[in-house]
TrEMBL record:
Name this polypeptide is given: Lysine--tRNA ligase
Keyword Metal-binding belongs to the record: yes
Domain Aminoacyl-transfer RNA synthetases class-II family profile residue range list: 195-506
Amino-acid positions noted as binding Mg(2+) 2 in the UniProt annotation, renumbered to this chain: E430
Cofactor(s) demanded: Mg(2+)
HAMAP family registered for this protein in UniProt: Lys_tRNA_synth_class2 (MF_00252)
Enzyme Commission number, as recorded: 6.1.1.6
Alphabetized PANTHER family for the sequence: LYSINE--TRNA LIGASE, CHLOROPLASTIC_MITOCHONDRIAL (PTHR42918:SF15), LYSYL-TRNA SYNTHETASE (PTHR42918)
Gene3D superfamilies in the cross-refs: Bira Bifunctional Protein, Domain 2 (3.30.930.10), Nucleic acid-binding proteins (2.40.50.140)
InterPro entries per UniProt: Aa-tRNA-synt_II (IPR004364), aa-tRNA-synth_II (IPR006195), aa-tRNA-synth_II/BPL/LPL (IPR045864), Lys-tRNA-ligase_II (IPR002313), Lys-tRNA-ligase_II_N (IPR044136), Lys-tRNA-synth_II_C (IPR018149), NA-bd_OB-fold (IPR012340), NA-bd_OB_tRNA (IPR004365)
Localization in the cell: Cytoplasm
Residues noted as binding Mg(2+) 1 in the record, renumbered to the chain: D423, E430
Source organism (scientific name): Microbacterium rhizosphaerae
Keywords: Aminoacyl-tRNA synthetase, ATP-binding, Cytoplasm, Ligase, Magnesium, Metal-binding, Nucleotide-binding, Protein biosynthesis
Amino acid sequence: MTDTTASADAVPAEPTEEDVFEQKAVRLAKRERLIAERTDAAGGAYPVSVGVTDTIPALRERFADLEAGAQTGVTAAVAGRIVFSRNTGKLCFASLQSGDGQRIQAMVSLAAVGEESLQAWKELVDLGDHVFVRGEVISSRRGELSIMVSDWAIAAKALLPLPNMYTELNEESRVRSRFLDLIVRDQARQTVRARAKVNASLRRTFEAHDFVEVETPMLQTQPGGASARPFVTQSNAFDTELYMRIAPELFLKRAVVGGIDRVFEINRNFRNEGADSTHSPEFAMLEAYQAYSDYNGIADLTQELIQNAAIAVTGSTTVTWADGTMYDLGGDWDRISMYGSLSAAAGREVTPQTSVEELAALGAANGVDAPPHATHGKWVEELWEHFVKGGLTRPTFVMDFPVDTSPLVRDHRSIAGVVEKWDLYVRGFELATGYSELVDPVIQRERFEEQAKLAARGDDEAMRIDQDFLRALEHGMPPSGGMGMGIDRLMMAITGLGIRETILFPLVK
């Protein structure tokens, strides 16, 4: 059995397990033949190198205006993966695909390569193989940019067939076999490159504002910087229990104490919690801290970071999502009060002084629940999500949070019971959060102690007292603004994709 031919008109069926088993056996035999017939170090099924001098994208750019039937007299040598193949007696056609999805046609003719080479092509080359070809660059009679092959070689023999190139893989197949997704689907390749552009843009914006990029520990002796359940591991070298990082915050603040006044990090966080369309146990996180700023200044910076990233990917602050929806990330974004917007939506005033009992009654009347032992702040946030969150359409900073849910944030300068914190909502989900940072070590210790009480009451996401961080604060941290933003979620906001599509290799069961 062979799969070297594919009709341009017919849509091939997805291979069954039996087909795959049979094709692999055939391909293994071809591999053995290639190895047996190897005549030099460059031959065989997996040569160490081939004589590539050109790339498919560069040739397509150089000869973009070549007329149908034209010859160039230019010899090129390229390699690519065969994604289409058709044999017609004395002439074989193949589409070679580069890593970015661009293609060039290889034409292997009896007149150009001879009978022995043409027969070897027909017998040894399969869909999915990486093949090297050298020859003149021409345009076919149909106007397709091609190489009239003078010599060729297998660059890497594929032992398994490609999936159907004419139908999309389902989402489960895409995330489990991303390497295949990247071969067959333009969107997958574009997403990888878009993410690289986003990260490069973030770094350019930070550089323009004199920020310094650092790296902080992923393995920590105690977790901190967020309310989240950590992953636990064991260090044999230190004979101690360690925690995968849930946030870099407390180490980045140590850097600010040490005099790195503008600091940021893009790296991985790990939270041992649920996974859904906006959450992944392992995710990429950006955090940044700026001395002598506050949550207003850091909101301005966050808006600039996101808008610049959108421009880097799409050329505009108006992005087009995967489903065709256009979404405007431009202009100055709305800033609304959490308590004020909740009061307006609920039809009754809710303040930092509203009792837990009153909030629970409001929740019960509207089908809103909260975890056992929920505090005032937890109830306010649950009610806000019920009444307000779903109505946000434009990018919106939700300002001024309850103090008891924000233990690392400075008290509001003029509103009692509130801290200077915002959450940024885009496309219906929380994209980023920002603070006027709490730098008073005495109050920070009190907040940690309150968190310890919550932990004793059964809250497994409550923060622990971090004595080393408190010691750093006692050496003096300047007034600062800070922010955290998920890179995966930023990609979601720009592309309209789900979180598993924005992560190259997401965790799956």
